[in-house]
């Protein structure tokens, strides 16, 4: 894997990978190149651009916090984090985060990545919609979530330099992003609503799927087979 870094970039190019924005370069090795091609081929343009921004925003947060992280592992986590929303996973019966994490694990195993790196990437994807936990884990895990929270929720918006933000969004624009990402979330989990119990995607279905009745934790306890 790449040497651990604090997000300091190098001169890049205008190809599909190796690009530089805000002083941070996408890893330019074969692993990152293949991951980029895979996501471009299998995910929507919306998810591709979002995932690339997640890498940059996560990297900038890592640089701001002086975290030592592996840029290649962070890049793979960012690029794969929403693959589980795709059509091929919509009847899996599993949380989309797990589907994406397993897809990343298979990809990394094919490339002979050490198990510790695979575990970090898997965890970064599996927990990226579980606030309050990733920030206390390995930097790659924390920074995938930080990048997602920045791009989707605007958490920490003013912590990053406006010029850096504009440079990243110029490279990977986000037109009508709020509406389009909510639509992608809805389509990704609507056929397996049971997987949203206890997580943020339950809110998505409540807003956009007529008649959706989200699971209720208290009711599950009260209605269990236990007498008391």
Strand percentage lies at: under 5%
Span from first to last CA? 53 Å
Secondary structure tally: strands: 2
Helix tally equals 10
Task: Give me the strand/helix succession.
Answer: EEHHHHHHHHHH
Which consecutive residue ranges, at least 5 long each, have pLDDT under 50? 6-17
The 3D shape can be described as: globular
Q: What is the typical, i.e. mean, pLDDT? A: 93
What does the largest sheet look like?
A: 2 strands, antiparallel
Compute the gyration radius: what is it? 18 Å
Instruction: Name the helicity range.
Output: 40-55%
Structural class: mainly alpha
State the strand order across the main sheet. 1-2
Q: Main attributes?
A:
mainly alpha; two-stranded antiparallel ribbon; 228 residues
Molecular structure report:
A two-stranded antiparallel sheet has the order 1-2. The protein is globular, with a radius of gyration of 18 Å. The N and C termini lie far apart (53 Å). It has helices at 30-42, 45-64, 71-80, 96-110, 115-126, 139-153, 162-171, 177-189, 201-208, 217-222; strands spanning 20-21, 24-25. It has 228 residues and is mostly helical. Helices cover 54% and strands 2% of the residues. The model is unreliable at 6-17 (pLDDT under 50).
What order do the helices and strands come in, and which of them pair?
Layout: E1 20-21, E2 24-25, H1 30-42, H2 45-64, H3 71-80, H4 96-110, H5 115-126, H6 139-153, H7 162-171, H8 177-189, H9 201-208, H10 217-222
């Amino acid at each position: 894997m790449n040497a651990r870094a604090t997000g300091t970039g190098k001169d890049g190019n205008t190809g599909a990978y190796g690009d530089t924005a805000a002083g941070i370069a996408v890893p330019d090795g074969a692993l990152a190149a293949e991951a980029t091609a895979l996501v471009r081929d299998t995910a929507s343009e919306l998810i591709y651009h979002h995932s690339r921004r997640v890498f940059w925003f996560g990297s900038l947060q890592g640089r701001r916090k002086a975290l030592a992280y592996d840029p290649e592992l962070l890049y793979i986590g960012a690029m794969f984090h929403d693959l589980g929303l795709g059509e091929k996973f919509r009847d899996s019966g599993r949380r989309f985060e797990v589907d994406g994490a397993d897809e990343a694990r298979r990809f990394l195993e094919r490339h002979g990545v050490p198990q510790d790196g695979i575990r970090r990437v898997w965890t970064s994807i599996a927990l990226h919609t579980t606030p309050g936990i990733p920030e206390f884990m390995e930097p790659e895990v924390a920074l995938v979530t930080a990048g997602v929270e920045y791009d989707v929720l605007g958490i920490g918006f003013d912590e990053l330099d406006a010029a850096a933000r504009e440079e990243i969004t110029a490279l990977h624009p986000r037109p009508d992003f709020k509406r389009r990402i909510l639509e992608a979330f809805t389509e990704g989990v609507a056929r397996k609503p049971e997987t949203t119990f206890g997580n943020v995607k339950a809110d998505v279905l409540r807003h956009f799927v007529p008649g959706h009745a989200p699971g209720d934790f208290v009711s599950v306890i009260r209605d269990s087979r236990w007498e008391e």
